Amino acid sequence: MITHFVRSTNRRLIILLSIILLATLVSCQKSKSTISAPSNRPKIDACTLITNDEVKAIQDSPVKDAKGSENVDGAFRVAQCFYSAETFNKSVSLAVTQGNPAAPNPGNPKDFWNETFGRYDGKVKEEKGDEEKKKSLGEQDEEKVDGIGDAAYWTANRMGGALYVLKNDVFIRVSVGGPENEEAMIKRCKALAEKALSRL
């Protein structure tokens, strides 16, 4: 009888410990997923982030048309808006990258940002051959831009360049046309990016 009681108690103890262990694992998984999961914010319409009047004021040319488009690549969604200026080489392109709200597991733009720009922050080591690739594409090294968003980089190429800005769980890309030097283009892109970021 004592043996039966001990076996019964051991069985109950094992079951109780199993339940506690299972509950602990489930709660750890829940807290882990809430920490690393990106925001599941609604779709962003890029054309609502900068007004035609703001483009006109910064680019010194009226906007004839603002045309939006969308590209979904699994876990990510890129919304774009092209502001076609009367003086065409003063047109503006804006792209917004966010986790795809419709995906079961939306991507995390911060992770993508770190993979892309991490080598300039020392987070990711540059691969052998990256320098040659950049030269063949006519690209220059990215230049860090201070005073906007959580982080920002200017990327230059033969055609001009673009400003990439990270803010919270989204990053934007702004590029402008025009005959100006790089410093002036960065200044205009930064002014446009500030308008867009204020509406995210």
What can you see in these coordinates?
There is one protein chain. Helices cover 40% and strands 26% of the residues. By secondary structure, it is α+β, with helices and mostly antiparallel strands. Helix 2 (52-59) runs antiparallel to helix 5 (182-197). It starts with a helix and ends with a helix. Residues 1-38 and 133-139 have low confidence and may be disordered.
Which tags fit this structure?
single chain, 200 residues, alpha+beta, 5 helices, 26% strand, globular, disordered N terminus
Largest sheet composition: 7 strands, antiparallel
Mean pLDDT: 78
Shape descriptor reads globular
Helical segment count = 5
Structural class: alpha+beta
- Helix amount: 25-40%
Give the oligomeric state of the chains in this entry, treating copies of one chain as homo and distinct chains as hetero.
Answer: single chain
Count the E strands. Answer: 7
How far apart are the first and last residues' alpha carbons, in Å?
A: 71 Å
- The low-pLDDT segments are 1-38, 133-139
Strand content: 25-35%
- In N-to-C order, the SSE pattern is HHEEEHHEEEEH
Placed side by side, the strands forming the largest sheet appear as 1-2-3-7-6-5-4
User: Radius of gyration in whole Å, from Cα?
Assistant: 25 Å
Could you outline the blueprint of secondary structure elements for this entry?
Layout: H1 2-36, H2 52-59, E1 63-73, E2 76-85, E3 92-99, H3 109-121, H4 130-136, E4 143-144, E5 151-157, E6 160-167, E7 170-176, H5 182-197
Antiparallel strand pairs: 1-2, 2-3, 3-7, 4-5, 5-6, 6-7
Helix pairs in contact: 2-5
Short summary:
The protein has helices spanning 2-36, 52-59, 109-121, 130-136, 182-197; strands at 63-73, 76-85, 92-99, 143-144, 151-157, 160-167, 170-176. The chain is an alpha+beta fold and 200 residues long.
